[in-house]
Amino acid sequence: MSAVVTEKLGEVWVVTLARPEVRNAVDSPTAQALHAAFLAFEDDAHARVAVFHGALGHFCAGWDLQYGARLAATGETGGLDLAFSADDSRALGPMGPSRLQLAKPVIAAVSGAAVAGGMELALWCDMRVMEEDAYFGVYCRRFGVPLIDGGTVRLPRLIGMGHAMDLILTGRKVEAAEALRMGLANRVVPPGQAREAALELARQLAAFPQATMRADRESAQRQWDLPLGEALLQEWQRGRERIPDALAGAQRFAEGQGRHGKF
Q: Which of 114, 155, 196, 242 has the fewest Cβ atoms surrounding its Cβ within 10 A?
């Protein structure tokens, strides 16, 4: 079985990390395969939303430390020292897709362990659907492995500096109920249901007018370092291109579609 499997379910793709013998930990060839899979999703004109899933009970246990031990014995780095430029939206990260800046949303279906680099991969996604017995954690803290796949950037932006420092400094386990409270998880579902719940959510997103949704998503992502006035201007500049879509949507509403909050 390939370490990365892609299923094309119409407009929704499922990218599955499949190295169950190491709880879906990632080595360099797997990182490259994940990166290629998400670039293919981005470049496919018919693909709208992706679900990122780990096979057989775990999302991802991070970077493969057994693989790292073999590298240490030979003096190799295994791609951990990948350089990139800030304006490269398609750069390869040590865990694979963690430096990609996609125009389309990705939903993580989190079961079992999503720890260390695996947690960073989940943070890279737009949303996280988490099973009740799944867990996050910066487990690499114990071994001196740094967060180099966006963890120190995305975690504070997602849950705030106080929560982020707690997780980054202690490396402690964060179970689903706490993850939901702090905003690390978006949905919590019964064990074994993350994939299907993420697929249901993905199909909902895929059914929306795509250009407007992507414009709003990009505006939200790019506003972080802008003063309020500039952020509002950016929002307007992206949104005004979608005004014809808004008027078409208003006409559908007047014709009776989507009334009373119905999707």
A: 196
